[in-house]
Amino acid sequence: MTTKVNEEIDRALLELVKDGLVTGASADKITLRILGESTPPKPAPLSPDEIRALRERENVSQAVLARHLNVTVGYVSKIERGAKRPSGSALAMLHLIKRKGIAALA
Amino acid sequence: MTTKVNEEIDRALLELVKDGLVTGASADKITLRILGESTPPKPAPLSPDEIRALRERENVSQAVLARHLNVTVGYVSKIERGAKRPSGSALAMLHLIKRKGIAALA
DNA sequence: CTTTTTATGGCTCCTGGTGCTATAGTTCTT
DNA sequence: AAGAACTATAGCACCAGGAGCCATAAAAAG
Asked: Is any atom of strand C within 7 angstroms of residue A6's beta carbon?
């Protein structure tokens, strides 16, 4: 896309990206190749108990958590009982909350 | 669950929560009732073009975005072409990125 | 030029997640 | 005290979100 303009600078910027010192914005497109090992790993599955513990740690009701995840209350109830297992983005968000707290989604 | 201990302090803390001055942790459980209008609204659907524009704004490849959302590359490709429409947590995360940037998910 | 990665496209298939409904316990309001 | 409103659980039918697979083309890396 961007035609090679000033390769030196570009390379330097990409170095920073690679090191996680810079998040993106400038330089060329960030690809998997560039990020390499520093790409977010596939989030591990969370047990029903872990999910409930997580929610209680954040001190929110199922309804509030549901809104943040953009899912239904019934679904939250189910994943806490083990009737359903979250995957995909739902799982990603739970991990996000686990790491940074619900406040991070505000 | 928690038996009313020192209602005065509790009430005061909940006031702070209600005002968004405090995020949780202490006080009683945060419920929808308490949050009221300050609850995250249902995210509006994003058009294929908006999604692609968003990704390009963040300068990441489909593969990188996919990892962040914890979905497959194929799926990202599809929602950018309109072959599938994201909903639930996937949509929530896209809005998150739109608001705070991909860096917020790190 | 060769290899790797990105992006698209299509097909099948499974289950995540919805919607609805009902019940019971809590906590507010009057 | 009774009632309204919210929380949490539960079950069931149903749809489409998203996975997995394979193939193709094009761009970037080496």
From this structure: no
Q: Which residues pair with B30 in a beta bridge?
A: A60
Using an 8 Å CB-CB cutoff, list chain A residues near B69: 88-89, 92
Do B52 and B25 reside in the same domain of the chain?
Answer: no
- As for how many domains chain B has, the answer is 2
Half-sphere exposure in the Cβ direction for B94 (13 Å, CA): 28
In contact, A45 and A91? CB cutoff 8 Å: yes
Is-contact A20 A52, C-beta < 8 A?
Answer: no
How far is the first Cα of chain A from the last one, in angstroms, to the nearest whole number? 34
Kindly report the CATH number assigned to the domain that includes residue A91: 1.10.260.40
pLDDT per position as a tens digit, B4-18: 333 333 444 344 444
CA to C1' distance (Å), from A69 to C22: 25
Beta bridge partners of A60: B30
Of A76, A59, A98, the C-alpha closest to B23 is: A59
Interval B25-45: pLDDT, tens: 445 789 888 887 677 888 999
CB B76 within 8 Å of CB B56: no
Q: Is residue A43 part of a domain?
A: no
